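Predict both folds.
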Amino acid sequence: MNKFLSVFAILIMLVTASCQKAEMNNPANADTATLVKQAAITIVNGPLTASVNQEVSFNVSWPYTGNCEKFKSFKTSTVKDTTHIKLFVATNANEDCTGKEVKRSSVYKFKAANPGIYILKFVGADNKPGIIDTVRVK
């Protein structure tokens, strides 16, 4: 009986390993057609004041080069009271975008833990100067 269980366990391990290898080599799982790039932020609308620990929203817009370009993420870095915000978009080269309308704005959320004046620098494409906004936190 022990011999049978050992052979059965080895067989299960081999089948499991071969399934995992097949999943890793499946091109449907690979997202090689997606191109991510930093977008040029052209419009920022948001509040001028906020309270401590209050989350405030900024509507951030950018021009796009085609209907397939979609919001991917914001990347931020903060030094003292200045936050640098970069916006990234993704394009899928394999997607048929004919006739699709894509949202060209997204919401950036900001929250300060201490009172003061905070500078938000929305960076342009290729790290060029963009839009500077200031929030007074009370």
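Second protein follows, with its predicted structure tokens after the sequence.
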Amino acid sequence: MLVIEVTNAREVVRQRIGRLGSRLIGKVVDAEAQVEKALMQEMENAFREFGIEARIYSVDGPAMVGRSHLEIPIQVREERVVEL
């Protein structure tokens, strides 16, 4: 199982939507959800190309605590099932 934490979602969205749009981050735009959605689409495409079947979840809540612990209060934002 892989766990990927996007650590610069706000910066990625800021680069994509510019200075004016960056003021909306946190008010109208959920930076993490937007970046995760785009990343999920890219992963889904890559998995299909490699013949990998998977379930990819975008969840809200888990947080890394140091290098050895993961806090897991989860709320699933989106789910994709990749099938061949």
